[in-house]
Design goal:
The chain is of the alpha/beta class. The chain folds into three domains: 93 residues, Rossmann fold (3-Layer(aba) Sandwich); 219 residues, UDP-N-acetylmuramoyl-L-alanine:D-glutamate ligase, CATH 3.40.1190.10; 142 residues, Mur ligase, C-terminal domain (Protein-Tyrosine Phosphatase, Chain A). The protein is built from 15 helices and 21 strands. The strands form four sheets. Strands 6-7-5-8-9-10-11-12-13 form a nine-stranded mixed sheet, sandwiched between helices. Strands 14-15-20-16-18-19 form a six-stranded mixed sheet, sandwiched between helices. The protein has a four-stranded parallel sheet with strand order 2-1-3-4. It is globular and about 75 Å long.
Length: 481
């Protein structure tokens, strides 16, 4: 755990006692702050109390004594409606911050020569894969890499910092909008497409939150920015004009005069008038598709900016095992490959898998985002049949039927898997893919996308075991005859 020593003697409120909230409260407590933590869920409060978190019902607290309040990232302070704690905070002029802000102050509170290195990653899609890949590269190169933020462990739950630590942080717009002190040695901005607009109001505010990842950078720091969409190209141009930081464009689909790019799966670094082939990504089984080629380019550029050997980076990229719930192959039953892409919670994220595969038996649905699956229509040609689950089922059925795509409202994930396996086995496709890529949030049927993906993986593995037992039984009968 990282002790929040810069908050010693302060009185801090913490609201939201999930993974992030508990680690934040304990970090502040261990650093000498007086902590008042609370949650609207009484069971969550009790669990936090059992872990040593000091709890106070903030509805009855004296807010005039609070120096700051840490709100859980998922708690809105403005749109769609301010949470009651945010209303109270504004009434008493209490600044609202994030756990990332606490972490950033701890870093900046150290002498410059003793600060750890920070690689921060944001973007609408690809954050988790890129974050995990960067962490894998650094560890493969012998570095002490701590991975957290919006992925895995809360940032303050990571191991204590020292000079040789590399913190690899996935940062959401929710975290960044409450962070003021972060200075990333390498700031990675992958892409920008509409998402979370109910929270930010419009694309301008969403972009502004994401661009806070560049705050406080100096000419010694690096910006790595995806230029495969117009928004990225515009932001890259604006940054070049406005500051003197090192800016490295990255692409997963086109050649760049300067930067890191992938062309037909081969990763190239083009800097200082010299083009170097880094790795053949076609050999990286966990990095299929152009979106993952861009992720690999981003990871290479970020790690290389910290002086790591380029050949070692390339070798590490090829050994990356992949990220759970993101185009994760979980089994192959007879000829049917099952891919868990549960992390695709919007259409743009699902687009990546629908682009990467053919002969898809697609499981989609859940709690739909505003755009639904309409933006995916150009990729429907890759879908043999779709199996629809959750609240979005009837809506997606209309969209797919209008596009003349065979589909079935399965209702539950379990039924969808069974129907997809049956149809894929009976199809004439040589390499059919049963793909869970919902293009929806999971909250109508599952606690989160991880639970949804785990349920898919478990069911598929059970089916695989059943097929294996049946195969062994048939083999025994054949030998006995």
């Amino acid at each position: 755990m990282i002790k929040a020593g810069t908050f010693k003697g302060k009185t801090i409120a913490v609201f939201g006692l999930g993974r992030t909230g508990i680690s934040t409260a304990l970090s502040l407590k261990s650093g000498g702050a007086k902590v008042h933590a609370w949650d609207d869920n009484s069971e969550t409060v009790e669990r936090a109390k059992e872990q040593g978190v000091p709890v106070t019902d903030l509805r009855d607290a004296d807010w005039s004594k609070f120096d700051e309040i840490v709100l859980s990232p998922g708690v809105p302070d403005n749109l769609p409606k301010p949470h009651w704690t945010a209303v109270k905070a504004r009434e008493f002029d209490v600044p609202i911050i994030s756990d990332i802000e606490i972490f950033a102050r701890e870093v900046m509170g150290r002498a410059e020569e003793n600060r750890p290195k920070i690689i921060a990653i944001t973007g609408t899609n690809g954050k988790s894969t890129t974050t995990a890949l960067i962490g894998h590269i650094l560890r493969a190169c012998g570095k002490d890499a701590q991975i957290g933020g919006n992925i895995g462990r809360g940032v303050l739950d990571l191991d204590r910092m020292h000079k040789g630590t590399y913190y690899v942080l996935e940062l959401s717009s929710y975290q960044l909008e409450r962070t003021n002190s972060l200075c990333a040695n390498a700031a990675v901005f992958l892409n920008l497409t509409p998402d979370h607009l109910e929270r930010h109001g419009d694309m301008d505010r969403y972009e502004a939150a994401k661009r806070r990842i560049f705050l406080n950078q100096t000419e010694d720091d690096t910006v790595v920015i995806g230029v495969d969409n117009p928004e990225g190209r515009r932001i890259c141009s604006e940054l070049k004009v406005s500051n003197g930081r090192r800016i490295v464009p990255i692409s997963g689909r086109k050649s760049l005069g300067f930067g890191v790019c992938a062309i037909k799966g081969k990763l190239y670094c083009n800097q200082k008038d010299k083009v170097v082939e880094v790795a053949n990504l076609n050999k990286a089984q966990a990095l299929e598709g152009m979106h993952n080629w861009q992720n690999a380019a981003a990871a290479y550029a970020a790690v290389r900016s910290l002086g790591i050997n380029p050949q070692a980076i390339g070798d590490a990229i090829l050994s990356f095992p992949g990220l759970a719930h993101r185009m994760e192959t979980v089994a192959k039953i007879v000829k049917v490959r099952f891919v868990n892409d549960s992390k695709a919670t919007n259409a743009d994220a699902a687009k990546q898998a629908l682009t990467a595969y053919n002969d898809i038996f697609w499981i989609a649905g859940g709690e739909a985002k505003s755009e639904g699956i309409d933006p995916l229509e150009p990729l429907f040609k890759n879908v043999r049949k779709s199996y629809l689950i959750g609240e979005a089922g009837p809506r997606f059925h209309k969209t797919l039927s209008k596009a003349k795509v065979d589909n079935k409202i399965s209702g539950t994930l379990e039924m969808a898997v069974l129907c997809a396996l049956r149809d894929a086995l009976n199809s004439d496709a040589k390499n059919p893919i049963v793909l869970l890529s919902p293009a929806c949030a999971s909250f109508d049927q599952f606690k989160n996308f991880e639970v949804r993906g785990d349920a898919f993986r478990t069911q598929v593995q059970q089916l695989d075991e059943m097929f294996q037992r049946e195969k062994e039984t048939m083999a025994k009968r054949g030998s006995a005859a």
